[in-house]
Design brief:
Helix content is 53%, strand content 13%. The chain has 23 helices and 11 strands. The protein has a 5-stranded mixed beta sheet, sandwiched between helices. Strands 1, 4, 5 and 6 form a 4-stranded mixed beta sheet that branches. A two-stranded antiparallel ribbon has the order 2-3. The relative contact order is 0.10. About 4% of the residues have low confidence. The structure holds zinc ion.
């Protein structure tokens, strides 16, 4: 399109005075939003005017185009906006492909450059700050996320997890009055150094979690007793009804099974990445391109109700032909897979030993194990410290007889249970008054270690009872970050990740 301004006169940007005396013309080229998928280029004829105002230092000025076509820009403002939005949502390479589909010509590096050039929004310093860490790679490398808890927004990301960088950030953002954090000491350190007057709030969820861990560990010392009580209170006929599955540890996994599991996991990962892209609004075609899967697979996954499991392989059919023989031998008491494999070979079986072993395991699997262990006896009701901890804290109806018997046999556990439950009540009801007494009781018992830990962080703990703030929203944002990070295929440079987390809706 060839366009030219229609106004008779223009305004001098220096003195704001009007002028209609044209000095010269020149051409400016701009790209604009595509029209029906066709790239649109604008050839703009721009005028230069004389400024005749006596007191104006400027003699000649170029007619300003306002916000539509900022000075020196090669794209109209609305095109730049569109590209920014695309890059924020999809990142560089996926963004470039979508742009191409829409009829906009821009390489991925152009997109990224444009995004990086964008003036960074200055967020006002938060009053209530939530801090947590997030994983670049779990167990390897962590970063820090900072949220404004009042506005429910991410305000910054830091590329590492350290007291120093957090402290520096806090010093650059004065005005923080409340810091909500988990119980990791490094954020506590940073806050204490940089904003000593701010109230630090320990996260309630983490408090409960840590307490449950300490509690479970203590119960672990009574492992034998727990199981004894579990057996004593389980009526035998009920024990028979229970599926034996849960009562036995899983069988050792054979290598082919392991391979099968790995394959499934790989498929599942791919499936999830497809679904994620679909959620981010990518078209089927885009997903196909990005994931390198066939169009058919992607379509099937997108229309399926859930993750479609592979159909069972018929690898076992070669064994099936010998089923009758195997069943007979099994009944005769030959349960040795290697022996049976040798026998089957003389019957023309061509499969490998593990094929037979898998088949046997599937057929006789757990029953086989149990028979080998000893003659049939009723399923052995077992429990675990974790399960008991949960029962004590939640007290479901069905667990009451068990708990009654347990407390009768061990007054020590009864006291411990009361202490643990009281801690939960204290947090739930925000009962600060109960703290000194709880702390004394706990310090005298097996939870002394946990109590001591709390004392060291007492101010933050009490603030957790007083303040309405928690790190829940921060964890929501960490989840969002994770989705964005994954859509970037781990090649994410930190600054782009940061921009996307801060600015994409
Ligand atoms: Zn002027």
């Amino acid at each position: 399109m060839v366009l030219r301004p229609a106004g008779e006169q223009s305004r001098c940007p220096s003195c704001r005075g009007h002028s209609d005396r044209i000095h010269s013309w020149y051409r400016r080229r701009l790209s604009d939003l595509p029209w029906e998928g066709i790239a649109v280029g604008i050839e703009l004829r721009v005028r230069r005017f004389f400024c005749d105002a006596a007191d104006c230092p400027r003699r000649i000025f170029t007619e300003p185009m306002g916000k539509t076509a900022p000075r020196y820009a090669r794209r109209t403002a609305r095109l730049s906006d569109a590209l920014e939005q695309i890059t924020l949502a999809l990142g560089g390479s996926a963004g470039a492909r979508l742009a191409e589909q829409l009829g906009i010509l821009a390489s991925d590096s152009t997109l990224l450059r444009q995004l990086r050039r964008r003036p960074v929004e200055r967020f006002p310093s938060p009053r209530v700050l939530g801090i947590d860490d997030w994983a670049w790679r779990k167990g390897h490398r962590y970063g820090t996320i900072l949220c404004d808890l009042e506005r429910g927004k991410v305000i910054d990301l830091l590329p590492d997890r350290s007291a120093e960088s957090t402290e520096r950030w806090l010093r650059f953002h004065p005005g923080v009055e409340i810091v909500s954090r988990d119980r990791a000491s490094l954020y506590a350190q940073a806050a204490t150094r940089a904003v000593p007057h701010a109230v630090q709030v320990a996260d309630r969820w983490h408090l409960l979690h840590n307490m449950t861990e300490a509690f479970t560990e203590t119960l672990g010392h009574h492992y034998r007793l727990l199981n004894e009580v579990a057996r004593a209170v389980t009526p035998t006929e009920q024990a028979h009804e229970e599926p034996p599955k849960a009562e036995f540890p899983a069988l050792a996994v054979s290598r082919p099974q392991q391979l099968q599991r790995n394959n499934r996991q790989r498929r599942l990962d791919r499936y999830e990445s497809v679904m994620e892209k679909a959620r981010l609004g990518l078209s089927q075609r885009e997903i196909v391109r990005q994931c390198g899967l066939s169009r058919k697979t992607v379509r099937r996954w997108l229309t399926a109700d859930g993750f479609p499991e592979r159909k069972r392989s018929c690898r076992h059919s070669s064994v099936e032909r010998h089923r009758e023989y195997l069943e007979q031998r099994w009944a005769q008491g030959c349960h040795n897979a290697a022996q049976l494999w040798r026998e089957l070979q003389s019957h023309g079986f061509l499969g490998r030993p593990h094929t037979l072993r898998d088949w046997l395991q599937k057929q006789y699997g757990r029953r086989h194990e149990r028979q080998q262990q000893q003659t049939l006896k009723p399923a052995d009701p077992r429990t675990s410290p974790r399960k008991v901890a949960w029962q004590i804290l939640k007290q479901p109806e069905a667990a009451l007889p068990f708990l009654g018997e347990l407390f009768r046999r061990s007054p020590e556990i009864a006291t411990l249970a009361a202490t643990a439950r009281e801690f939960f009540r204290m947090i739930r009801e925000r009962d600060i008054a109960a703290w000194p007494e709880w702390q004394q009781t706990a310090a005298a018992g097996p939870l002394a270690g946990f109590a001591k830990h709390l004392c060291r962080d007492q101010a933050a703990f009490l603030a957790a009872l007083e303040q309405p703030w928690s790190n829940g929203p921060v964890e929501g944002q960490v989840h969002r970050l994770k989705l964005i990070k994954r859509s970037m295929y781990g090649r994410a440079s930190f600054d782009l990740l940061r921009l996307r987390v801060l600015h994409s809706a």
